[in-house]
């Protein structure tokens, strides 16, 4: 069987709306390497979009899952609860930023976590409105789609979005949006479009994921906390992509001197198994009535067992320090290319949540063609990369944090060679 044959079968069997970033069909994987059905080997700098931070099939995660498989796979926690759900909630209540009593719920996906955070915020405040930011990605359900600050492909063709969702510009100095400008626009929003007394929550990613890996400035986060406290608004940190050692901390909000009221998480939580969570202030989390939160598969015991192992691996293998080390090496390598590759507009990202942005040479015009060409060139040499950003001109680097040094060095060589090749072709 070949990738081409499977692609033809896929086109006949699967809806067009399920996009594909490659035509490479995985057969097996180990840590930061994937082999396709034709036996070709790839270095994975996508990690399932920041899911397998602890690597594909980490032995400790696999062992935990196998042990749970031998006991039971599903009872539905709302019908017959189980200890590992309770234990994981206790661990997250301790680890999530915030010096206050916390409680947790588990669901299955990041979009579910965000949607439930909105439900909790509305129940706790008695208010409806939500403020999000341009460039944000919060999910593909209708509520989370309405909060997402990018039209194509996430909103295009799906009709009217839920009401009472408002957007302010996210501060990105590279694009001419300062902290002062963003806060000014938020204030204008409160004057012109929505009374802050009607706002249940302000939600943001500490580092925008799909939006382009832009980190929220500390001054901006501090100001948001002050605004929320002034108006009785809850602050929600969407840590779905930033969580679990990716930014050099277990949670990205640990880089700031303020804590959110609610934190959503998924992706890296369970090392490749479907699990998501909302953790927040105990009194806020208790606002919903019994039965108002949950789901048939919410907090499945397999995913919960995997998540316990992930937290152990993060601590035992010091993955926060590892993320900082890898990110520093990668950014240094990229910085060394600036003088030779005029398309590089910015290199950024905390820990090992890094990105490079491309513009037309000597211009502020985004260059998505260059980013896509680098991605394609790298794939031809066995490296899987992802693009992102509102303009599609950003390449994000999301390899497992457990990647071996020699494989990481090999990947950096491919990145450099791919960028040089594409830049030389563009200049010719």
Question: How would you sum up this structure, described in words?
Answer:
The protein is of the alpha/beta class and 428 residues long. Helices cover 38% and strands 16% of the residues. It has helices spanning 3-13, 47-50, 59-69, 83-95, 110-125, 142-147, 179-192, 218-231, 282-285, 301-316, 319-335, 368-380, 405-427; strands at residues 26-30, 33-36, 41-44, 102-107, 129-133, 165-168, 199-204, 234-238, 262-265, 276-281, 344-348, 354-358, 383-384, 386-388, 394-397. The protein has a seven-stranded mixed β-sheet with strand order 4-10-9-8-7-5-6, sandwiched between helices. The longest helix has 23 residues, at 405-427. The relative contact order is 0.16.
Mean pLDDT: 96
Structural class: alpha/beta
Strand order of the largest sheet: 4-10-9-8-7-5-6
The rough form would be described as globular
Tell me the quaternary state: single chain
> What's the tally of helices?
13
**SSE ordering:** HEEEHHHEHEHEHEHEEEHHHEEHEEEH
Q: Compute the separation of the termini in Å.
A: 39 Å
How many E-type strands? 15
Short recap of the structure:
The protein is an alpha/beta fold. It has helices at residues 3-13, 47-50, 59-69, 83-95, 110-125, 142-147, 179-192, 218-231, 282-285, 301-316, 319-335, 368-380, 405-427, and strands at residues 26-30, 33-36, 41-44, 102-107, 129-133, 165-168, 199-204, 234-238, 262-265, 276-281, 344-348, 354-358, 383-384, 386-388, 394-397. The protein is built from 13 helices and 15 strands.
